């Protein structure tokens, strides 16, 4: 027997009600007839008893029918109530579905609002950090470096010119500066191919601050800064992280500036392993570390060990950046210098010529790298005794510099090399020839003050001496010396607005050697780092200096978000 539905039960109940009502009417009719018969047979007792018994049975049956009708009515009412309840149930279910949809929408809105709130909190936190950094920078302005410290730094650089490796890696103002290998500089193109890794802003800022201290010879501040940052990065990110490799690279180059070559080599090898593991073997940052390691070996005279590293860096940059990229040209310059120190002049000329072609094509003939590369190539010619080829390149550098500063060359506007040759020709005719300063003012650092030009003046002077043109050589060498002295005087006396600009430029030139040696982490930075003042002023005792140094380092680390 199958179970009946609610509708079927109600339908059957209505049918039963109809049958019971018909049966009730029939019973009422029969009962009425019996009652009338009973009244007529009242005078015959035996018959009346039988009729009375029948009437009682009918009455009982009628009562049962009435009870069944009542129960059927109740069942119908209950069925109607159940239908009403079911309708309410369906209505409530619809409301529940609508509320679930509204709840899901509200959850989405809440999640979106929470994300916006989190982004806002991060932005506020970043603004607070920026504010703290700016407040810190304003508090250390009073610790400006003394001019005497700058002069002493200049004297230290002069002393470094006696080092046997200065011919390979001199500072910007050394005699053979244009032939120096260049550590990896910042490059906006290299940043675009850094395969998902971008150096954090705080490391960039710390990097620039370390440059400032190192350029001033304040290694007692620069080294603890690097070590503290390295320790913090290893705690937060682990040893095998690109940021740790960046910090190792910076610290290694600070050690290299201190001539601590062994420590620098260990750090660079560690940084190289981390970058190869985390960024891949063909990443620009790997090329930067290889280049810095090659530079380090070159400074130690290990040219054969440095050459394969430099070649591998060149291959990576050619593969990632393209064969005609300026960074490839810089790598070619470094490789040419390593070959030059091994006497491989054929390769030297090929590398320099290719680098020169890249610079002229991509950056234009007036780019400083063009003059530097011409000077490098001319120096290679000079060492081989190819005086004619070297002289042509030296004169091209000086002529182009003259045209940029003083305009087109004519009878009254002559480049310095032409003035020097005229003085050489007229040395026996006029004893007291006119000072060359009247012929364009080359000795004035405000006009022509380029380390490349100064080096070219000295190198061309050397060439003139080898050719027996002593008067011309003295003219160029004296001009270079005057430029140097003028730069020192500007550092001492640069108090006017224009002088302030010259002072800043001179300081930039004085620290460029350290800055370029540290710019090896592929930073996408400006041409010059910010001129951070030193947090240590002149003190009266060594103890107060140590306290100021410790306090300055703690402030710097709090400003950069590191743990001190």
TrEMBL record:
It is found in: Cytoplasm, Cytoskeleton. It holds the Pfam family TPR_10. GO terms for molecular function: kinesin binding. Keywords: Coiled coil, Cytoplasm, Cytoskeleton, Microtubule, Motor protein, Repeat, TPR repeat. Residues 146-188, 498-550 are annotated as: Disordered. InterPro entries: Kinesin_light, Kinesin_light_repeat, TPR-like_helical_dom_sf, TPR_rpt. Residues 154-163, 499-515 have a biased composition (Basic and acidic residues). GO terms for biological process: microtubule-based movement. TPR repeats lie at residues 245-278, 287-320, 329-362, 371-404. The keyword Repeat applies. Transmembrane segments: none annotated. The keyword Cytoplasm applies. GO terms for cellular component: cytoplasm; kinesin complex; microtubule. Oligomeric complex composed of two heavy chains and two light chains. Kinesin is a microtubule-associated force-producing protein that play a role in organelle transport. PANTHER family: KINESIN LIGHT CHAIN. Belongs to the kinesin light chain family. This is Kinesin light chain. It comes from Petrolisthes manimaculis.
């Amino acid at each position: 027997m199958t179970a009946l539905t609610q509708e079927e039960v109600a339908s059957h109940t209505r049918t039963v009600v109809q049958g019971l009502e018909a049966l009730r009417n029939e019973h009422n009719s029969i009962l009425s007839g019996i009652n009338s018969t009973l009244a007529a047979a009242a005078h015959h007792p035996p018959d009346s008893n039988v009729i009375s018994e029948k009437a009682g049975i009918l009455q009982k049956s009628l009562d049962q029918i009435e009870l069944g009708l009542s129960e059927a009515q109740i069942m119908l009412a209950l069925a109607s109530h159940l239908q009403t309840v079911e309708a309410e149930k369906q209505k409530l279910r619809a409301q529940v579905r609508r509320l679930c949809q509204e709840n899901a929408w509200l959850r989405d809105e809440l999640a979106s609002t929470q994300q916006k709130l989190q982004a806002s909190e991060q932005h506020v936190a970043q603004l607070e950090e920026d504010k703290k950094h700016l407040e810190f920078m304003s508090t250390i302005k009073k610790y400006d470096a003394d001019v005497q410290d700058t002069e002493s730094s200049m004297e230290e650089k002069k002393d470094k010119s006696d080092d046997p490796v200065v011919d390979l890696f001199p500072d910007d103002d050394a005699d053979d500066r244009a032939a120096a290998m260049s550590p990896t500089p910042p490059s906006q193109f290299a940043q675009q191919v850094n395969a998902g890794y971008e150096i954090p802003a705080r490391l960039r800022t710390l990097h620039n601050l370390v440059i400032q201290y190192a350029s001033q010879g304040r290694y007692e501040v620069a080294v603890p800064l690097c070590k503290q940052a390295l320790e913090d990065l290893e705690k937060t990110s682990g040893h095998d992280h690109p940021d740790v490799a960046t910090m190792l690279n910076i610290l290694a180059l600070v050690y290299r500036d201190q001539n601590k070559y062994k420590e620098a080599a260990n750090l660079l090898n560690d940084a190289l392993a981390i970058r190869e593991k985390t960024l891949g073997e063909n990443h620009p940052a790997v090329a930067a570390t290889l280049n810095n390691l090659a530079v380090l070996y070159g400074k130690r005279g290990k040219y054969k060990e440095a050459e394969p590293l430099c070649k591998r860096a060149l291959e990576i940059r050619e593969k990632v950046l393209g064969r005609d990229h300026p960074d490839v040209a810089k790598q070619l310059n470094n490789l040419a210098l390593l070959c030059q120190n091994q006497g491989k002049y054929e390769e030297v000329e090929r590398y320099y010529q290719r680098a020169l072609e890249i610079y002229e094509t991509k950056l234009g003939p007036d780019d400083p790298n063009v003059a530097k590369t011409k000077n490098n190539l001319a120096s290679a010619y000079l060492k081989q005794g190819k005086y004619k080829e070297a002289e042509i390149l030296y004169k091209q550098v000086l002529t182009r510099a003259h045209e940029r500063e003083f305009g087109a060359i004519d009878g009254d506007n002559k480049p310095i090399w032409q003035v020097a040759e005229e003085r050489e020709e007229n040395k026996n005719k006029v004893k007291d020839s006119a000072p060359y300063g009247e012929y364009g003012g080359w000795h004035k650092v405000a006009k022509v003050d380029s380390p490349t030009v100064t080096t070219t003046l000295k190198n061309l002077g050397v060439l003139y001496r080898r050719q027996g043109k002593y008067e011309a050589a003295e003219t160029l060498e004296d001009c270079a010396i005057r430029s140097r002295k003028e730069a020192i005087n500007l550092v001492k006396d640069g108090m006017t607005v224009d002088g302030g600009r010259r002072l800043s430029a001179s300081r930039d030139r004085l620290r460029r050697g350290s800055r370029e040696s540290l710019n090896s982490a592929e930073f996408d930075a400006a041409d010059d780092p910010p001129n951070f003042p030193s947090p240590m002023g002149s003190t009266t005792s060594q103890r107060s200096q140590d306290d100021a140094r410790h306090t300055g380092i703690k402030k710097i680390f709090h400003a950069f978000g590191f743990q001190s």
